[in-house]
Amino acid sequence: MAEIQNLTPRDAFETLLAGNERFVAGSPEHPNQDAARRAQTAPGQNPFAVMFGCSDSRLAAEIVFDRGLGDLFVVRTAGHVVGAEVLGSIEYAVQVLGSPLVVVLGHDACGAVAATRAAVQDGTTAGGYVRDVIERVTPSVLASHAAGHTEDPDFITEHIKHTVDLLLDRSRLLAEAVESGRVAVVGLSYRLADGTAHVVTVRGVGIPARLF
To answer: Residue 208: what pLDDT?
Structure first.
């Protein structure tokens, strides 16, 4: 495999999947988690993937993908909702740090999606900035309703797809990096019970169909 700091989008994706397979099998290698790696990364970082995921405490990226220090540039918000800070963080990782892969990581039993479904169905609302999270997830829930979906996995899938589309619609820098073939954006859905990460959508070249 290519050196970890010079991975193609495909290499980066395969590395993530391999780590998740080790985690699911109960045989993690815990790479890049020792003192030598700490010293190596102290002068600077060169993460091979951006992980934009939900803030859920059960969704720790370095654990579920069996990676270590300097491997993943992690951005997390409740329900993986997108704001200016998220876009700026992802653009920084892609443009300045050279990350070839951006992952949107959603999961089943997502509280943000459940709260939004309740708000849409019953008209219930939340206080404070939780309301803002619900408002940002609402387009995904409405799209799922319009498609006739009724099951939770379908709503999760729709929200992951919507987030991927939103990133590319709002970030010209990211869209151009994908168009040039330098970066791929992948939407993954994580299953809490068994720890598996499943591909929902892929935008960009270089990732063959056999991988999902």
So the answer is: 58
